């Protein structure tokens, strides 16, 4: 008598959705059905008032096989400490305004397509950046981008989407000024005058900008750049290169790769991590290699 194959065991997913995400909770119904049909039971769980998303993941970790986060880059950022502590793999349902991390990994912005990636089951380890103990997926910035994060409200993101970034950026650019900073990295100290310094882990950030054209989230490196421009119109000239990630070729852009860098300023300046203001200078950055596992498109099968 032939032996029947054992039924595939079902997996349990902790589903956490940011209700303030640009596309909200209504758009995930089809995604949940796709997951269920593939053998993944996703249980949506709300965060209580007295806990963070990371707290929720830690609390529920023993009951689940994976975590699925529905939201944008800020929502993923909030989940990062819990994912690192528990070791649970991450599935991404892009529901935010920019979804830069999803774009870095080649995850489609459509939640149903993203659900199919999770259902396929291919996982890959990725790096995280860290600044003063705060983790980030995409990029951390000091200067212009930090001012943009403070100025761009949740209401503006939800109403205007990516256009909101451009409206706020133009307003801030008109009043921005260069500031002095000291960089400690790879055994050297450099003094700079800059409009913005950014330290990237992934490739994309800021609703369409690129940290460096060849950067990946699993290369074990941080990509640093500093915009040392004299006039605001020079930054406008740089914009096409900033979008492509080729700005490091310009004379007034300082760019290098490293695994650790400290940025010091004469007065404390806020640091923007994945669109959220999380800490202040002095800022110590380091790479956290292969910190978490993420469901991603299987590049080999896609060929």
TrEMBL record:
It holds the Pfam family YegS_C. Residues 8-135 form the DAGKc domain. One of its GO terms (biological process) is phospholipid biosynthetic process. It comes from the Bacteria. Keywords: ATP-binding, Kinase, Nucleotide-binding, Transferase. GO terms for molecular function: ATP binding; kinase activity. PANTHER family: SPHINGOSINE KINASE, SPHINGOSINE KINASE RELATED PROTEIN. This is Lipid kinase.
